[in-house]
Amino acid sequence: MTSDSTSSAASTKLSKLSYSDGTKELPSDAPHWAIKASERLKQRRSNGYVSSVDVPSEVKRVLLHSCCAPCSGAMVEEMCSSPQLDEVVVFFYNPNIHPRKEYEIRKTENKRYCEQLGIDFVDCDYDADNWYERMKGMEFDPERGRRCTECFDMRMERTALYAHENGFQAIATTNATSRWKDANQVDSSGHRAAARYEGLKYWHQDWQTDEMTLRKYEISASEKFYKQEYCGCSFSLRDSNDWRKANGLSKIKIGGEEAGIGERYFTDPLIDAAEESQDVVDEFFAQANEIAEAAGNDVAKRREALKVYKDRRKSEATDGVVSGLNNW
């Protein structure tokens, strides 16, 4: 486990953040939610921007578990813009990400972003063997099922241990920013992990507001972050590719300049946010649960169940590219 830092002074780190970076005027035909969120963000910036996050009492140092750069951007910005905090450190522990190539892409990008902001980045071990051991018997659970709970638990337990050993008063996770995740499931894992150590708190907050969502994609587009096409684990990769095959869609591509579907990098905040709309997310999980209930662990039955989704696709753009499938 290593810790990389470009600055030791918290004040220096925080001063490198500029809340106006990466923002731009939205088109007049932008969705109502985005226009309102943009107006609220502009008002904050005009007031010199001070974060409105509700920092837990007596917390000065936060260890932020990060799953990837796109999910960390707005959350890091909010935390580091709070006058109540002295230090925010990003903790990268994600043994679930498979294959190793995908893991290295996500980690390297996250580390580069932290170095750019002058924020400490802790590179934890790629503990894949232990992750697979812990997930035994849950290989065919649907997304948001027991396997995901165990995965969150494992990552938050390691985060809490590091926080306890290094004097942090609170932990948090960027998994809570994504609408692809069940916020209650994520937060429950965080609370359980923090409860293991006296004096350690889990920072629970709604990180999926319209302002946070828009800002997350503004930063991602500005930085041209890598757009991952699945959650991260080999089981998610398998199930996503099975679903795509059943619908006649291209397989997921790991790395490279071209994605299996859509854009390889974040480029447009509104398009990117639309791929994480509640309708897209709800449809995905409804189908995943139907397949799990119909087939369980039987691979042949799962493939048969997938056939019902042929030609039943998510929203399709005018250029024929199916949206909502490559933005986790």
What are the key terms here?
6 strands; six-stranded mixed sheet; 328 residues
Give a summary of the structure in a few sentences.
The protein has 328 residues and is α/β, with parallel strands linked by helices. It contains twelve helices and six strands. It has helices at 10-15, 32-46, 69-80, 100-117, 128-134, 146-165, 183-194, 210-223, 234-246, 269-274, 278-295, 299-306; strands spanning 2-4, 61-65, 87-92, 121-123, 170-173, 201-202.
Describe this structure in words.
The structure is a single chain. This protein is an alpha/beta fold and 328 residues long. Helix content is 45%, strand content 7%. The protein is built from 12 helices and 6 strands. The protein has helices spanning 10-15, 32-46, 69-80, 100-117, 128-134, 146-165, 183-194, 210-223, 234-246, 269-274, 278-295, 299-306, and strands at 2-4, 61-65, 87-92, 121-123, 170-173, 201-202. The radius of gyration is 20 Å and the shape is globular.
